[in-house]
Design brief:
8 helices, Nucleotidyltransferase, domain 5, five-stranded mixed β-sheet, 2 domains, alpha/beta
Length: 225
């Protein structure tokens, strides 16, 4: 099954096409200021590299959050437009799940951290057991100190906020704190694709009309109103 996956949850933008167990093509651009200017070009480039047309894919997968409010809206609206026009199914995937997946082979507690601004982070806790990624703590938005509170075991931290607050985390947890390698902190669209495949096989996909970002925290415009 050929899946085209897209991530725009942070400043990076990533597109990939996988065919079940095979990665056909992937392209990630870091520090993209305006995702809307680049998404269709990236999709076209990845399709060309995979020797496919976007019409050839069997379904789409996209990050639904948490993350950048604007980035998530752009990515989801792009995928919804393609899905509607081509009558293809869509799977929504958590950006924290994707980061945790990128550390899935670790025996440690997996703690993805994404910058939520306002000196807060989006976080959750995961374990990889019996070849499956399991969420240990629900997604939430908290201060960096709260994100590491109650950790009494070796843990691996991944994500842009893990890089931002690395010194504070290490000071708090000492030898219990481990950090993903440099290349793992950026969400890869292939991770989104791999996580979506079981749902596609079970025909558990989204209602495209109802697919919306999962912000966790309300946008500032809603808070002020």
């Amino acid at each position: 099954m050929k899946i085209l996956a897209l991530d725009t949850a942070t400043q990076s933008c990533s597109v990939a096409i996988v065919d079940d167990g095979l990665l056909l093509a992937e392209l990630t651009r870091a520090n993209v200021k305006t995702h809307s200017r680049h998404i269709m070009d990236l999709i076209e480039t990845v399709c060309l590299a995979a020797d496919l047309s976007v019409r050839d894919v069997d379904g789409f997968a996209v990050t639904i959050g948490p993350g950048s409010f604007t980035g998530l809206r752009i990515g989801i609206s792009t995928i919804k437009g393609l899905a509607f026009s081509l009558s293809k199914p869509v799977a929504g995937v958590s950006s924290l799940d994707a980061l945790a997946w990128q550390c899935a082979q670790s025996a440690y507690l997996i703690c993805p951290l994404l910058d939520a601004r306002k000196k807060e982070v989006y976080t959750g806790r995961y374990r990889f057991k019996n070849d499956e990624l399991k969420r240990d703590v629900s997604e939430k938005v908290v201060s960096p100190a709260e994100a590491v509170s109650g950790i009494w075991e070796p843990s691996i931290f991944v994500g842009n906020a893990a890089q931002m607050y690395r010194e504070k985390i290490a000071a708090k947890l000492g030898e219990l704190a481990h950090f993903a390698s440099q290349g793992q902190h950026t969400i890869r669209a292939s991770s989104i694709a791999w996580l979506s495949i079981p749902g596609f096989h079970r025909k558990q996909t989204e209602d495209v009309a109802l697919l919306v970002p999962h912000y966790i925290r309300k946008p500032d415009a809603e808070i002020k109103s």
